[in-house]
Amino acid sequence: RMFGRDKIQIKTPAQIRHMRQAGLVVADIHDALKAAIAPGVTTAQLDELSARAIEKGKAKSNFLGYYGYPATVCTSVNEEIVHGIPGQRVLQDGDLLSCDCGAYVEADGVQWHGDAAFTAVVGNYASETDKYLDRTTERALWAAIAALAEAGASGWKDARINLIGDAVESVVFDAAQETGHELGIVEEYVGHGIGTKMHMAPDVLNYSVSSKGVKLQPGMVLAIEPMITAGRASNETLDDEWTVVTRDGSRAAHWEHTVALTPKGVWVLTARDGGAAGLEPFGFAPTPLSA
Ligand code: MF3
Ligand code: CO
Q1: How many CB atoms sit inside 10 A of residue 90's CB?
Q2: Which residues line ligand 1 (CB under 6 A)?
Q3: Which residues of the chain have pLDDT under 50?
Protein backbone atom coordinates (compact mmCIF):
# COMPACT_ATOMS: atom_id res chain seq x y z
CA ARG A 1 0.00 0.00 0.00
CA MET A 2 1.40 3.37 -0.91
CA PHE A 3 -0.59 6.42 0.00
CA GLY A 4 2.45 8.26 1.28
CA ARG A 5 2.83 10.55 -1.71
CA ASP A 6 -0.70 11.95 -1.80
CA LYS A 7 -1.68 15.13 -0.06
CA ILE A 8 -3.16 14.60 3.40
CA GLN A 9 -6.84 15.54 3.68
CA ILE A 10 -7.53 18.08 6.43
CA LYS A 11 -11.10 17.91 7.73
CA THR A 12 -13.25 20.71 9.06
CA PRO A 13 -14.96 20.20 12.44
CA ALA A 14 -18.25 19.59 10.58
CA GLN A 15 -16.62 16.88 8.47
CA ILE A 16 -15.11 15.24 11.55
CA ARG A 17 -18.60 15.12 13.04
CA HIS A 18 -19.78 13.21 9.94
CA MET A 19 -16.89 10.82 10.50
CA ARG A 20 -17.97 10.45 14.12
CA GLN A 21 -21.35 9.22 12.83
CA ALA A 22 -19.60 6.58 10.76
CA GLY A 23 -17.38 5.75 13.74
CA LEU A 24 -20.39 5.16 15.98
CA VAL A 25 -21.85 2.74 13.43
CA VAL A 26 -18.53 0.87 13.52
CA ALA A 27 -18.79 0.80 17.32
CA ASP A 28 -22.30 -0.67 16.92
CA ILE A 29 -20.92 -3.40 14.65
CA HIS A 30 -18.23 -4.20 17.21
CA ASP A 31 -20.81 -4.46 19.99
CA ALA A 32 -22.98 -6.79 17.90
CA LEU A 33 -20.00 -9.01 17.05
CA LYS A 34 -18.67 -9.12 20.62
CA ALA A 35 -22.09 -10.18 21.91
CA ALA A 36 -22.27 -13.00 19.36
CA ILE A 37 -18.73 -14.42 19.39
CA ALA A 38 -18.90 -17.90 20.94
CA PRO A 39 -17.92 -21.49 20.18
CA GLY A 40 -20.24 -22.91 17.50
CA VAL A 41 -20.84 -19.61 15.71
CA THR A 42 -19.67 -19.38 12.09
CA THR A 43 -17.75 -16.41 10.76
CA ALA A 44 -20.46 -16.01 8.08
CA GLN A 45 -22.98 -15.43 10.89
CA LEU A 46 -20.76 -12.62 12.17
CA ASP A 47 -20.78 -11.07 8.70
CA GLU A 48 -24.60 -11.15 8.69
CA LEU A 49 -24.70 -9.39 12.06
CA SER A 50 -22.26 -6.79 10.77
CA ALA A 51 -24.33 -6.16 7.63
CA ARG A 52 -27.45 -5.76 9.77
CA ALA A 53 -25.76 -3.28 12.14
CA ILE A 54 -24.57 -1.20 9.19
CA GLU A 55 -28.07 -1.13 7.72
CA LYS A 56 -29.60 -0.24 11.08
CA GLY A 57 -27.11 2.65 11.36
CA LYS A 58 -28.22 3.94 7.93
CA ALA A 59 -24.66 3.52 6.73
CA LYS A 60 -22.94 1.46 4.02
CA SER A 61 -20.12 -1.05 4.07
CA ASN A 62 -16.76 0.15 2.84
CA PHE A 63 -15.32 -3.39 2.95
CA LEU A 64 -17.94 -5.09 0.75
CA GLY A 65 -16.74 -4.86 -2.86
CA TYR A 66 -13.43 -3.20 -1.92
CA TYR A 67 -11.15 -4.58 -4.69
CA GLY A 68 -13.76 -7.32 -4.87
CA TYR A 69 -13.69 -8.19 -1.15
CA PRO A 70 -16.83 -10.32 -0.58
CA ALA A 71 -17.96 -9.39 2.97
CA THR A 72 -18.58 -6.50 5.38
CA VAL A 73 -16.08 -7.73 7.97
CA CYS A 74 -12.70 -9.46 7.99
CA THR A 75 -12.58 -12.39 10.41
CA SER A 76 -9.03 -13.61 10.99
CA VAL A 77 -8.65 -16.70 13.19
CA ASN A 78 -5.51 -17.85 15.02
CA GLU A 79 -2.54 -17.77 12.59
CA GLU A 80 -4.53 -15.53 10.25
CA ILE A 81 -3.30 -11.96 10.71
CA VAL A 82 -5.70 -9.86 8.60
CA HIS A 83 -8.22 -10.02 5.75
CA GLY A 84 -9.70 -13.41 6.67
CA ILE A 85 -12.95 -13.94 4.73
CA PRO A 86 -16.09 -14.95 6.68
CA GLY A 87 -17.50 -18.34 5.72
CA GLN A 88 -18.64 -21.68 7.11
CA ARG A 89 -15.75 -21.94 9.57
CA VAL A 90 -17.12 -22.72 13.02
CA LEU A 91 -15.42 -20.88 15.89
CA GLN A 92 -13.92 -23.13 18.57
CA ASP A 93 -13.26 -22.63 22.27
CA GLY A 94 -9.80 -21.09 22.53
CA ASP A 95 -9.66 -19.60 19.03
CA LEU A 96 -8.17 -16.14 18.79
CA LEU A 97 -10.39 -14.07 16.50
CA SER A 98 -9.73 -10.63 15.00
CA CYS A 99 -12.68 -8.73 13.55
CA ASP A 100 -11.98 -5.73 11.32
CA CYS A 101 -14.87 -3.77 9.87
CA GLY A 102 -15.92 -0.39 8.67
CA ALA A 103 -18.77 1.73 7.43
CA TYR A 104 -19.36 5.05 5.74
CA VAL A 105 -22.13 7.60 5.87
CA GLU A 106 -22.99 9.99 3.08
CA ALA A 107 -23.39 13.74 3.55
CA ASP A 108 -23.88 16.15 0.66
CA GLY A 109 -22.99 13.36 -1.75
CA VAL A 110 -19.61 12.71 -0.08
CA GLN A 111 -18.60 9.55 1.79
CA TRP A 112 -17.19 9.73 5.34
CA HIS A 113 -15.51 6.54 6.50
CA GLY A 114 -14.85 4.71 9.76
CA ASP A 115 -12.62 1.66 10.26
CA ALA A 116 -11.76 -0.30 13.42
CA ALA A 117 -10.68 -3.77 14.55
CA PHE A 118 -10.55 -5.76 17.77
CA THR A 119 -9.29 -9.17 18.83
CA ALA A 120 -11.09 -11.54 21.20
CA VAL A 121 -10.63 -15.01 22.57
CA VAL A 122 -13.51 -17.34 21.71
CA GLY A 123 -15.11 -19.07 24.70
CA ASN A 124 -13.60 -19.66 28.10
CA TYR A 125 -10.21 -21.15 27.43
CA ALA A 126 -7.55 -18.53 26.68
CA SER A 127 -3.90 -19.54 26.66
CA GLU A 128 -1.44 -17.32 28.53
CA THR A 129 0.30 -16.61 25.23
CA ASP A 130 -2.94 -15.46 23.56
CA LYS A 131 -3.78 -13.23 26.51
CA TYR A 132 -0.28 -11.71 26.42
CA LEU A 133 -0.41 -11.21 22.65
CA ASP A 134 -3.88 -9.65 22.71
CA ARG A 135 -3.20 -7.41 25.73
CA THR A 136 0.08 -6.17 24.29
CA THR A 137 -1.45 -5.38 20.89
CA GLU A 138 -4.35 -3.47 22.42
CA ARG A 139 -1.91 -1.64 24.68
CA ALA A 140 0.27 -0.76 21.68
CA LEU A 141 -2.75 0.80 19.96
CA TRP A 142 -3.68 2.87 23.02
CA ALA A 143 -0.07 3.86 23.71
CA ALA A 144 0.06 5.25 20.16
CA ILE A 145 -3.23 7.11 20.64
CA ALA A 146 -1.95 8.44 24.00
CA ALA A 147 1.25 9.64 22.33
CA LEU A 148 -0.95 11.59 19.91
CA ALA A 149 -2.99 12.99 22.82
CA GLU A 150 0.23 14.17 24.44
CA ALA A 151 1.42 15.83 21.23
CA GLY A 152 -1.96 17.48 20.80
CA ALA A 153 -1.86 18.83 24.34
CA SER A 154 1.24 20.81 23.28
CA GLY A 155 -0.59 22.14 20.23
CA TRP A 156 1.03 19.56 17.89
CA LYS A 157 4.31 21.48 18.06
CA ASP A 158 7.04 19.47 16.26
CA ALA A 159 4.76 16.39 16.22
CA ARG A 160 5.45 13.94 13.41
CA ILE A 161 3.71 10.77 12.43
CA ASN A 162 6.44 8.41 13.54
CA LEU A 163 5.50 8.99 17.16
CA ILE A 164 2.92 6.28 16.41
CA GLY A 165 5.44 3.70 15.22
CA ASP A 166 7.75 4.63 18.10
CA ALA A 167 4.95 4.06 20.62
CA VAL A 168 3.91 0.69 19.17
CA GLU A 169 7.47 -0.55 18.99
CA SER A 170 8.31 0.53 22.52
CA VAL A 171 5.26 -1.26 23.99
CA VAL A 172 6.25 -4.46 22.19
CA PHE A 173 9.90 -4.04 23.24
CA ASP A 174 9.06 -3.33 26.90
CA ALA A 175 6.74 -6.35 26.99
CA ALA A 176 9.55 -8.57 25.72
CA GLN A 177 11.95 -7.17 28.33
CA GLU A 178 9.44 -7.99 31.03
CA THR A 179 8.36 -11.45 29.87
CA GLY A 180 11.22 -12.72 27.72
CA HIS A 181 8.69 -13.38 24.96
CA GLU A 182 9.49 -11.33 21.87
CA LEU A 183 6.48 -10.61 19.66
CA GLY A 184 6.57 -9.80 15.93
CA ILE A 185 5.39 -6.51 14.44
CA VAL A 186 3.89 -7.01 10.97
CA GLU A 187 5.41 -4.46 8.56
CA GLU A 188 3.72 -5.20 5.23
CA TYR A 189 0.33 -3.91 6.38
CA VAL A 190 0.03 -0.47 7.94
CA GLY A 191 -2.47 2.06 9.17
CA HIS A 192 -3.65 4.89 6.97
CA GLY A 193 -5.27 8.25 6.64
CA ILE A 194 -9.06 8.03 6.34
CA GLY A 195 -11.81 10.44 5.31
CA THR A 196 -13.72 10.61 2.04
CA LYS A 197 -12.14 7.22 1.26
CA MET A 198 -11.21 4.37 3.59
CA HIS A 199 -7.55 4.33 2.60
CA MET A 200 -5.80 7.66 2.11
CA ALA A 201 -2.46 9.33 2.78
CA PRO A 202 -0.46 9.08 4.94
CA ASP A 203 0.79 5.55 5.63
CA VAL A 204 0.84 4.94 9.39
CA LEU A 205 3.71 2.59 10.22
CA ASN A 206 3.74 0.38 13.31
CA TYR A 207 7.51 0.55 13.76
CA SER A 208 10.19 3.20 14.14
CA VAL A 209 12.01 4.55 11.12
CA SER A 210 14.87 7.05 11.01
CA SER A 211 12.85 9.64 9.07
CA LYS A 212 10.18 11.02 11.35
CA GLY A 213 7.66 11.45 8.54
CA VAL A 214 4.93 13.99 7.94
CA LYS A 215 4.01 16.71 10.40
CA LEU A 216 0.79 16.23 12.33
CA GLN A 217 -1.90 18.87 12.54
CA PRO A 218 -5.51 19.19 13.68
CA GLY A 219 -8.05 18.02 11.11
CA MET A 220 -6.08 14.92 10.16
CA VAL A 221 -7.83 11.61 10.78
CA LEU A 222 -5.75 8.45 11.07
CA ALA A 223 -6.62 4.74 11.25
CA ILE A 224 -4.03 3.26 13.60
CA GLU A 225 -3.82 -0.52 13.45
CA PRO A 226 -0.96 -2.55 14.91
CA MET A 227 -0.83 -6.20 13.82
CA ILE A 228 1.32 -8.28 16.16
CA THR A 229 2.30 -11.96 16.09
CA ALA A 230 3.24 -14.33 18.90
CA GLY A 231 6.17 -15.58 16.81
CA ARG A 232 7.89 -14.25 13.72
CA ALA A 233 6.15 -11.48 11.78
CA SER A 234 6.94 -13.10 8.41
CA ASN A 235 3.70 -13.73 6.50
CA GLU A 236 2.13 -14.85 3.24
CA THR A 237 -1.24 -14.57 1.49
CA LEU A 238 -3.36 -17.69 0.96
CA ASP A 239 -4.72 -18.82 -2.44
CA ASP A 240 -7.97 -16.94 -1.75
CA GLU A 241 -5.77 -13.86 -2.41
CA TRP A 242 -6.97 -12.18 0.79
CA THR A 243 -6.17 -14.11 3.96
CA VAL A 244 -2.77 -13.14 5.36
CA VAL A 245 -1.22 -15.80 7.65
CA THR A 246 2.01 -16.10 9.62
CA ARG A 247 4.56 -18.37 7.95
CA ASP A 248 5.51 -19.96 11.28
CA GLY A 249 1.89 -20.66 12.25
CA SER A 250 2.05 -18.39 15.28
CA ARG A 251 -1.12 -16.56 16.24
CA ALA A 252 -1.75 -12.88 15.59
CA ALA A 253 -3.73 -10.01 17.07
CA HIS A 254 -5.02 -6.82 15.42
CA TRP A 255 -6.47 -3.71 17.08
CA GLU A 256 -7.53 -0.57 15.24
CA HIS A 257 -9.29 2.74 15.80
CA THR A 258 -10.08 5.76 13.63
CA VAL A 259 -8.63 8.77 15.44
CA ALA A 260 -9.27 12.47 14.72
CA LEU A 261 -6.59 15.00 15.64
CA THR A 262 -8.27 17.98 17.32
CA PRO A 263 -6.67 21.35 18.23
CA LYS A 264 -5.67 20.14 21.72
CA GLY A 265 -5.67 16.35 21.47
CA VAL A 266 -7.53 13.40 19.97
CA TRP A 267 -11.07 12.12 19.52
CA VAL A 268 -11.30 8.37 18.95
CA LEU A 269 -14.18 8.32 16.50
CA THR A 270 -14.75 4.54 16.58
CA ALA A 271 -14.82 4.33 20.38
CA ARG A 272 -18.24 5.07 21.84
CA ASP A 273 -16.62 6.97 24.74
CA GLY A 274 -14.31 8.86 22.38
CA GLY A 275 -11.32 7.05 23.83
CA ALA A 276 -11.82 7.95 27.51
CA ALA A 277 -11.31 4.44 28.94
CA GLY A 278 -8.37 3.60 26.67
CA LEU A 279 -6.54 6.87 27.35
CA GLU A 280 -7.18 6.96 31.10
CA PRO A 281 -4.31 4.59 32.11
CA PHE A 282 -1.93 6.90 30.25
CA GLY A 283 -3.22 9.98 32.07
CA PHE A 284 -5.05 11.51 29.10
CA ALA A 285 -8.66 12.23 28.15
CA PRO A 286 -10.17 12.69 24.70
CA THR A 287 -10.82 16.23 23.42
CA PRO A 288 -13.96 15.82 21.29
CA LEU A 289 -15.30 18.61 19.09
CA SER A 290 -18.52 20.05 20.45
CA ALA A 291 -21.63 19.95 18.27
N1 MF3 B 1 -9.80 -2.54 7.35
C2 MF3 B 1 -8.70 -2.92 6.56
C3 MF3 B 1 -7.74 -1.86 6.92
O4 MF3 B 1 -7.74 -1.66 8.05
C5 MF3 B 1 -9.04 -2.94 5.14
C6 MF3 B 1 -9.79 -4.11 4.76
S7 MF3 B 1 -9.87 -4.16 3.10
C8 MF3 B 1 -11.09 -5.25 2.80
O9 MF3 B 1 -7.16 -1.10 6.28
F10 MF3 B 1 -11.18 -5.32 1.51
F11 MF3 B 1 -10.84 -6.35 3.35
F12 MF3 B 1 -12.19 -4.76 3.26
CO1 CO C 1 -7.71 0.20 8.48
Answers
A1: 12
A2: 63, 66-67, 69, 74, 83, 100, 102, 115, 192, 223, 225, 256
A3: none
